[in-house]
Structure formats: C-alpha cells, structure tokens
Amino acid sequence: MNPQFHRHAIGAAVLFALCSLAQAQSAADGATLNTITVTGNPLGAAEAIVPVEALSGSALLYRSQSTLGETLQGLPGVSSTYFGPNASRPTIRGQDGDRIRILSNGGAALDASALSYDHAVPTDALVTDRIEVLRGPGALLYGGSAVGGVVNVIDNRIPTEPINGFGGRADASYASGSKEGNGAVVLEGGNDRFALHVDAFRRHADDVNAPTWLECGKGGVNVLQKRICNSASESRGGALGGTLFFGGAGWIGASVSDYRSNYGTVAEDDVTIGMRQQRQALEGEWRPGGFFTAIHAKASHTDYRHTEYEGGSPGTTFKNNGNDLRIEARHRPIAGFEGLIGLQSERTRFAADGEEAFAPHSRTRSDALFLYEELPLSWGKLSVGARTERVKVSSQGYPDDPSITRFVLGERSFNPHSASFGLLYNVAPQWQITGNLAYTERAPKDYELFANGPHVATAAWEVGDVNLQKERSLGADIGAQWKAGANNARVNAYWSKFRNYIGLTATGNLRTDEGDSFARGSDEAALAAAMDEELLAEYVYRGVRARFTGIEASGNLRLLGSDGLRPLEGGKLDLEWRADAVRATNTDTGEPLPRIAPVRVGATLAWTSGPWNARLGFDHYAAQRRVPAGDRSTDGYTLWNASVGYRMKVQRASLLWYARVDNLTNQLAYSATSILTTTVFPKAPLPGRSVKVGLRVDF
C-alpha cells in the first residue's frame, strides 16, 4: 500500500483515538450531531440554499440502471454521457467530465471515468443507500472539478451511527432487454459500541435489445441483429466495514471494498474492457466540546486499473492510484455565524501503457484550505465561503519505452481560488426564494496539458497545451420553491460565464496512427491507402470563452386523496412533472458547445393504495439542431415508462415485489449528449423495450 496513505491513515487514527480518552464532561457537551448531507449543506441543515436532489429507498430502486449516468438521467438538469449501456457519467447543466465531481460518502472516488467516455464509473446502485446530486458549482468544498456539480454516492460502508441489532436487505431482479440477472445483499449489525457492514453484488447481461436492425462484426463475422453490438457486461464486488463508537465523544471506522467489471465498449465490435478498483477508507469524528464542536476526518487509498482487450488480446492499460485526506472542523457560533474550516489533500499517479496511450504518465498533487459559514436570520439565512488551492501537475512522459518522445516532460503549478455567496429568504410559510453567486477557478488536468496521441473514444488525435492557464467562471443561480402539503413546485434559473473554458477544438488537420500530420485538404483516401493506416482528425485542448444559461422546474400535484382535488378512498394519485432547458455557447466563435441536452419535459402519474403502487410516465426530448460543425443533430423522441409494486410483511421482513417497463413503445432514439451519436452513428441507439421484474427484502 502507498506509504503516503499510511501516513494519512495513522494521523487520522491518532486524532480519533483521542476521543476514547475524552472526559465525561466532553461527552456530555458533545450531543449527537445531525447527519451531514454533504452535497447539500455541510452543516447538516434541513434547508439547502443550493439546488440538491436525493434518491433513496424505492425511488432509487425503480430508477436504478447498470451505470450511474443512466440511473440519474432525467432528474432536473441531469443528463448522461451514454457510451452505450455499460459506461456513462452524469452531465449536469450541460457540463461533464472533470467539471462534475463524483464522491464516495463525501470523499474522493478515484477512477478514470472523467478521462474518457468509454471508462465506466466503478459504482453500482445495487449496494447504494442514497445518491445526492448538487446542481451548480460545488467547487468551494470539493475543488475545481466540481464547478458543474457534485454527485455523492452513499453506501454506509463505514456506519456513522450506532446500529442496535441486526438487519439488512437483499435484491434479486431480471431484465428482458439484455437478459440481465442481478443480485445483491447488504448486512449490518451492532450495538451502541460498534457496528459492522458487509455487502456483495453481481450483475450479468448479454447484448442489449435495440429498436432497429444494426450491423455487428464481432468475431470477424458480419451480421444484422436487433441488439447493440458488443454491449454485454459482467460486474461484481463487495465491501467490509466497521465502526467503533465512544458515546458522545465520537467514533472511528474503516472499510475495504473491491469492484470488478468486464464490458464491451460499443464503439468497436471486438474491444472489451476489464476494470478493477480496490479502495481502503478510514473515517471518524471527534467531539472535543470546546471551540470546535466536531472534527470530522476521512482518508482513503484507491488502486484503479483497466485494460482494453482487442479481440481477446491485451491492449492499452490505464492505471490511476491515489490518496485522499479531508478534515473538517466545525466551530461554535461566532457573532451568529455557524460554520467550519477544512483541509483537503489529494495525490494521484496516472499511467497509460499501450498503442492508445494518448496521455503520458503523470502525477498530480493538490492541497486546499476552505471555509464555509452560515448566518441564520429571522427571515432565512445567508452563506459565505472561500477556498484556496495549490495544484502541481507533472508529466513523466512514457518511461516504459524511451523511444516514444511525443509527450512533453515538465511540471506546471497553479493556485486556484474560489468564493461563494448564498441567500435563502422565507417569503411566506409556503414560499422560499434562494440565490447563489459563485466565482470558481479550476486547474487544467494532466491530459489537458500533456496529451498527444490517438483516442478511440473521441475518434481523434488529441493534443494538450502545456501553456494552458486556469479555467475561470462566474455563475449565478436563483430559485423559488412552494410547498403546501403534498403539493409542491420548484424552479431554478442559472447563468454561468467562463473565461478560458478548456475543451477540444478541431484544427482541420489529419493524423495517421503514427502521428504524421496532414492538412485537411489532402486526399484522405489516397493517404490512407498509401500508408495502410487509419486517419484521425486532430483536436487540441484550447481555452475559449463560454456561456451556459438554463432553467429547471419540477413539482408534484396531488390529484386524488388527502390534500387532493377530490378524495380517494384508501389511496392517492399524484402528478409528478419536470422540465429543463440549457443553452451553451462558445462566445469566441458564436458556435454552440457540443453534446448539450435538448429541451425536455416529462410527467408521471403515481398511484398508491395500501400495499400497491403503480406509475406511468413519459419524458419528451425535443430535437437538438443546435450543434457545432461536424456534430450530428438528433431528432425529438418520447420515452414511456411504467412500473407496479406490491409490498408485504413476512414476520420481521418487508418484501417489495416490483415490475418495470423501460421504453414501453420501443422508440428508436439517439442521445444528443453522447459522443457515439456522432462518431459511430447508427451503432449506439438508446436501449429498446425491456421488462424488469424483481424482489427487494428488507429485514
């Protein structure tokens, strides 16, 4: 294990071991604190100023898919990068990649999913308790990689509260669209002194159903089939964790987890990926009872690697290893202000070895201090915060083969700074208005600085710019909320202006597999035939000015039942509705930015009566014609979905039987936010109709 992680872990362990020696007065002063909703409010308050969405329980169960992006797809402001059924990351308000931070229980979740669209996120909803989504800048608490938003996956692998007794849950399901079989179990037990957690899952699927006939050349045999070629997958994993509690003085816990997956990449018929992530985490809290009421710390070490296999032979291998340390100290009120100060430190080492190693071996080190404060007032509250970082990014080139000299060697240092201001105003008992203003700076990533090679996922030869400067943005968000019993409505409008927005820009040149460059006017067919090589378009990372504007709205209307327009004996009927729109522009050229979601509207009728529940809804996606030159526009489409569930009790256990139909009408559709819609059209439509049946047992 990495020695830096040992130092972080030992330091945190020593800090929290002190809580066992805390005197009785400290224990009495340190009452149990509220559970912290890290993505919504670091102080654990019920009312968040920033827009936050949360999924848990049956709501998460009915939405869950094999990837994180598809699970969250359709939430207000949230789309998916959709690199086929096996790899997708959330897109929030038109931003993806390293502008969306994915967390594991509030700590760093290290992988390579932001580097390339075909790299999956190593997490599974089968063993997830809750997912929180922060829309808008979260850079204040989590760094420049959260300028677009934050997704926090919570799995309770380190229990933060005592568990009295024994319990858990088990899941089993089958989906017809891919012959997907799933199974998972989560077990927890303990008392007021200790708690243990164990979980395990497995998921297996064949190629996914498609609404149309598609060509497939897997294994060198060309066929037509109503399936998405090379979309089969298999994943499995598990974790063991435990916590010791010291009464009111605090707690300390640790966990180990393992995730493994093998899946087809969709873009290439004979390329599969074998992925593995191993993670060790240490977390705890000490409540000293003095000026600092609680000191919360977490440290983790992650080993991640995946290998891309071409026809069964190993090709390029990607590795990302790193450590993360985060300490937050919450203080007593000062002149009415409640808040915390924090320290965050991250160390990562990245390596890519093989024919498609488009980025060099690199090392990134970042350290940050941050401050967050809230001032409760009679009419609401105010929030202010600031963050300062020091980031160093270095390139080691390609040490395994010194003859490869296309990568620049060197190191860049950056000092990003961020600040935010928020307001929550209670206009009336049923009405709230919120506002947020944030200034954010982001240091360029290693591949944005040093890349120079072929990248199959983007069908391009990517070139970094070692002279890139910090990405700067100024964003504002204003929202209104109304709630009256079961009825509610929310609307948020936002605006973000970027200076030096870093993205891939076409140069007009062509590159061969060996890196030779030719002007766009060359005879491409003759060049390819003469050299027997594939030609790739050349793209470079450049900073441009950009602007994002949009609106999101959602709500619930009780139609029948209590608080409804009419009574309904023993049941209720709700209308859930949602809509969003985003517009993103490169203001240097006036062109639209790529892969932006179209206007979307949706509604669902939700009925419950005793142990029964049923849902029927649709999401309509307008046509997306506003695309940059070279990208493919998409037609509009409507996806219908339905589900039914029945809950019953068997002794101490609660059983939920359910069935769900996705894409009820078998609609043929292509995602505007997927790069595959442009690069490999028509190989990767959205999945066709699928019926999923399952059972969840809580005990």
Automatic annotation (TrEMBL):
GO MF annotation terms: siderophore uptake transmembrane transporter activity
GO CC terms: cell outer membrane
Alphabetical UniProt keywords: Cell outer membrane, Membrane, Receptor, Signal, TonB box, Transmembrane, Transmembrane beta strand, Transport
Signal peptide range: 1-24
Gene3D superfamilies, alphabetized: TonB-dependent receptor, beta-barrel domain, TonB-dependent receptor, plug domain
Pfam families for the chain: Plug, TonB_dep_Rec_b-barrel
Membrane topology according to the record: Multi-pass membrane protein
Domain TonB-dependent receptor-like beta-barrel: 250-664
Localization: Cell outer membrane
Motif TonB box: chain residues: 35-41
Domain TonB-dependent receptor plug: 50-150
Chief location of this protein within or outside the cell: membrane
Family named by the database record: Belongs to the TonB-dependent receptor family.
Annotated protein name in UniProt: Ligand-gated channel protein
Lineage summary: Bacteria, Pseudomonadati, Pseudomonadota, Betaproteobacteria, Burkholderiales
